[in-house]
Amino acid sequence: MARQSNSFVCQSCGATYPKWTGRCDACGEWNSLEEETATAAPAGAHGVDGGANGRALELSGLDAATDEAPRRLTGNKEFDRACGGGLVPGSALLIGGDPGVGKSTLLLQVAAGAANAGARVVYVSGEEAIAQISMRASRLGLSKANVGLAAATSLRDILATLKKSRPDIVVIDSIQTLWSDTATAAPGTVTQVRACAQELIRFAKNTSTTVILVGHVTKDGQIAGPRVVEHMVDAVLYFESEATRSFRLLRAVKNRFGPAHELGVFEMGGGGLREVANPSSLFLSAGETPAPGAAVFAGIEGTRPILVEFQALVSPSSLATPRRAVVGWDSARLSMLLAVLDARCGLGLGKHDVFLNVAGGLRIVDPAADLAAAAALCSSLFDAPLPSNALFFGEVALSGAVRPAAQADARLQEGEKLGFKRALAPAGPADDEPQRRPAPRIRLDEARRLADLVNWVRRIPRNEVEPRDDRRYARRESAA
Ligand code: TYD
Ligand code: MG
Q: Would you call 108 exposed, middle or buried from its count of C-beta atoms within 10 A (0-12, 13-18, 19+)?
């Protein structure tokens, strides 16, 4: 006989307790626990004798064809890229993001693209009526697409519909609006979100349907509902934007079938989301005369090379504790870099205000950004513009050594494609012979130590940007 076991779940963070308490220990929220009833298996069912007679399969005996998961392309290249090269049948994805960022727009476009490529697609909306979805579709020029639309919130109804129409791809917009009659809590609560996600994921695995769940992230960063789904699904992607900008980033934070941190770039306009195939052009300030403090970083986001501009402003401070502000990069990383520049290169930055900004609103996590940030800082400190055709990348160690960066070839090739002529980067692996260089039109200057960069900024670019004036140099160096 089935046994009922009760537990209490915090609707704010998802923590589970055996007894009710007024305040959740995990997130500090008051009065957020709700009772959840789980039906346990009959006593003894898990015993050795009660279990089904299963069989373990020999890994080596499995069909070799299964080593690469087959994928379904949606025709939206940026979306396919973010998913790791298309959608895997039987997988479940979570697309999270702030309300209004464009999740519904993106998924309607993806659904239409996949339908045009021959897939059977059903788009279930719990937030909008059919008329609203079709209005949006006609605005996006997709009214002819062969997508099945449903406006429903009852999980039982949705599953019944899906079992009848047997689609290849299902979009659920959003998971927070669904409710299952197996749970008593209100829609949008952790209990409901988890119960509905579980059912839909089981449906995906049993029928080889790709299920895409949309999840809202609330403004204060609390993602109670979607957070509990993150570990259940195969891939988690976040759709992000900078408040004042029109471009949108679709970033994979988890992917069981592909690389995490993969990035898709879109631009929101009157006709919906446009794919941005060459995002480097978005993040570089084109055509401007070089200003002191600007350095171009050849970065890697996921598997894709992207060039972005670091901008620094270093000026003598009147405060006892100089100001440090950083946008788009890790502030602890900046502190570390400033300390290394002080300790290993004697720049005396401790008495300067330092501001660092990544142009275009991108957030850089690639460790190889150190050298570009240092180049921007030195350029501002020496008031020396860097040549606009130079790239920088490399990770700086506390010792002041510059460590080789991953995928140096891809970085250089991206730079070459965009007309860059020189790069300052650490030496690559030993087999980096000139004739085998991947980007022969880029002159690679080696930076083994951070001091090499400082000297490079002091000397070499000055010859190219303006005629060298040794007296001004002497003055600036003694001031620094
Ligand atoms: P939406 O997809 O509804 O966001 P979400 O589902 O993430 O809540 O997008 C809404 C925003 O997108 C809204 O502010 C208007 C904007 N938008 C455009 O700028 N152009 C368009 O063609 C569409 C359809 C929406
Ligand atoms: Mg929406």
A: buried
Q: How far apart are CA 373 and CA 366, in angstroms?
A: 12
> What is the CB neighbour count within 10 angstroms for residue 366?
22
**Chain mean pLDDT for the chain:** 84
Query: Which residue's CA is the closest to the ligand 1 atom numbered 24?
Result: 272
479 vs 291 pLDDT, higher one? 291
Which ligand 1 atom minimizes the distance to the CA of 98?
A: 7
pTM for the full predicted model: 0.77
What's the pLDDT at 9? 84
List Cβ neighbours of 82 (8 Å cut-off, separation of 6 or more).
Answer: 237, 250, 251, 252, 262, 263, 264
What residue owns the CA closest to ligand 1's atom 25?
Answer: 272
Angle at 265 between CA 261 and CA 266, to 5 degrees: 145
Could you give the strand order of the β-sheet that contains 422-425, starting from the edge strand earlier in sequence? 324-327, 352-358, 304-316, 294-301, 390-392, 422-425, 443-446
If one residue of 109, 268, 273, 274 were mutated to test the ligand 1 pocket, choosing by the most ligand atoms within 8 A of its CB, it would be: 268
Residues 382-424 pLDDT 10s: 999 998 889 999 999 999 999 999 888 889 988 888 888 899 9
Tell me how far apart the alpha carbons of residues 278 and 290 are, in angstroms, rounded to a whole number: 22
pLDDT digits (tens, 9 = 90+) for 151-183: 999 999 999 999 999 999 999 998 989 999 988
Q: Give 423's contacts (C-beta < 8 A, 6+ positions apart).
A: 298, 390, 391, 392, 393, 411, 412, 415, 442, 443, 444, 445
Asked if 85 and 71 count as a contact pair (C-beta separation under 8 A), the reply is: yes
- Band (431; pLDDT cuts 50, 70, 90): very low
- Please tell me if the CB atom of residue 103 comes closer than 6 angstroms to any atom of ligand 1: yes
**Which bound ligand lies closest to the C-alpha atom of 250?**
1
CB atoms within 10 A of CB 267: 15
Phi first, then psi, for residue 184 (nearest 5°) are -95, -15
The Cα–Cα gap between 61 and 57 comes to: 8
